[in-house]
């Protein structure tokens, strides 16, 4: 595995950050992960890196360090032998989808023939058609690279400039970074597939309009009352939704989690991630098996690569569900995996390949582990 290292700059002091940026090696690549509360550090970083050094970065709801959330400063990913990053703009526009897919394919095809590599992508979380874009990308490059990624942005799901390079900030965009000779990432959520199913009889993008021919919210409320004996209202909807998200059942038996995040006046339900019309859905119970994910993640990472450190992305919705157990999950991953350090961020959606193939899939409520050394 080519050099892929992580470090934490534990200060939010602009002077200290500027000094660290001045000392960066211009022959390497760097990607900066910051929490949205430290967005003011972006211009400091942009002005302070050495001339000729191309950087990239993203804002997340919070950073993860020392097994805890809300860390100050920034997480810096250092990459050896990596090409310059690429940023695709107007990513949610269907009119731009083909051109953006072609740019992504050209970027991937710049790799030497037969050289193994991963493609790390960071999407603006408010892009509503990420699943469709991943399908389009696969048609262009198939399994030439091991694709993985996450969503950046604000946990309030309001539009912000959440990606950046040396000169600009971006929203409605995707950051791409090729990682030469890297094995990719492992994703785990642990949700088992229940036996009962419902159908998204009407859906549009990331909005479920009807479930079983009823307004989506009405049917969700009915199911929650029948199964859990709770009264779901518009006011408490999100509090329950993170504990009882939707699952999309794939033909290969894999479950894609979709956490509802909002409602429309007519009772439609917004999710992070698309819901294909007529999908077979199930209502997942986060308490039923998601606690198994840390052990599975650590086991799979140990089988994948001999790594000393771990870059970890932890779904913000999963953190809301797990509460105090979220930090215990990080401790479990560290102890089971034998990692020296775990650094990362809260994510707003996760991307990885199917367990049965390298087909890219969009997830919620998931842990993303990226080996480093």
State the shape: globular
The tally of beta strands, per DSSP, is 27
Class inferred from helices and paired strands: alpha+beta
> What is the typical, i.e. mean, pLDDT?
92
Give the oligomer, counting copies of the same chain as homo and different chains as hetero.
single chain
Helix fraction, binned, reads 25-40%
In spatial order, strands of the major sheet run 1-6-2-3-10-11
- Given as residue ranges, the uncertain stretches (5+ residues, pLDDT < 50) are none
Count of helical stretches: 9
Which range does the strand content fall in? 25-35%
The domain count comes to: 2
What is the first-to-last residue Cα distance? 8 Å
Specify Rg, calculated over alpha carbons. Answer: 20 Å
The largest β sheet comes out as:
6 strands, mixed
């Amino acid at each position: 595995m080519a050099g892929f290292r992580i470090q934490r700059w534990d200060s939010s002091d602009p002077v200290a950050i500027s000094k660290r940026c001045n000392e960066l090696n211009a022959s390497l690549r760097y990607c900066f992960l910051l929490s949205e509360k430290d967005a003011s550090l972006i211009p400091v970083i942009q002005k302070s890196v050495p001339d000729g050094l191309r950087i990239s970065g993203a804002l997340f709801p919070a950073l993860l360090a020392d097994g805890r959330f809300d860390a100050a400063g920034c997480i810096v990913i250092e990459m050896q032998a990596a090409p310059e990053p690429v940023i695709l703009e107007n990513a949610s526009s269907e009119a731009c989808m083909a051109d953006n897919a072609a740019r992504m394919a050209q970027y991937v095809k710049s790799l030497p023939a037969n050289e193994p590599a991963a493609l790390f992508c960071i999407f603006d979380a408010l892009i509503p058609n990420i699943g469709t874009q991943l399908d389009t990308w696969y048609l262009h490059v198939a399994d030439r690279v091991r694709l993985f990624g996450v969503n950046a942005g604000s946990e309030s799901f309001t539009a912000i400039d959440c990606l950046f390079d040396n000169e600009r900030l971006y929203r409605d965009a995707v950051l791409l970074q090729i990682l030469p000779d890297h094995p990719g990432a492992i994703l785990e959520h642990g949700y088992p597939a229940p036996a009962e199913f419902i159908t998204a009889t009407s859906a549009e993008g990331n909005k479920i309009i009807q479930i079983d021919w009823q307004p989506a919210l009405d049917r969700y409320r009915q199911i929650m009352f029948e199964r859990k004996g709770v009264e779901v209202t518009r006011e408490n909807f999100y509090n329950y939704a993170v504990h009882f998200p939707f699952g999309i059942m794939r033909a290969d038996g894999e479950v894609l989690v979709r956490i509802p995040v909002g409602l429309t006046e007519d009772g439609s339900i917004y999710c992070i991630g698309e819901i294909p019309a007529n999908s077979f859905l199930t209502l997942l119970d986060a308490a039923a098996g998601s606690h198994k994910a840390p052990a599975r993640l650590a086991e799979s990472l140990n089988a994948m690569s001999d790594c000393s450190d771990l870059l970890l992305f932890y779904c913000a919705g999963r953190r809301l569900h797990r509460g105090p157990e979220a930090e215990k999950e990080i401790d479990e991953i560290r102890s089971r995996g034998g990692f020296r350090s775990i650094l990362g961020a809260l994510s707003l959606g996760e991307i990885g390949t199917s367990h049965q193939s390298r087909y890219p899939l969009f997830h919620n409520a998931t842990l993303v582990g990226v080996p480093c050394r």
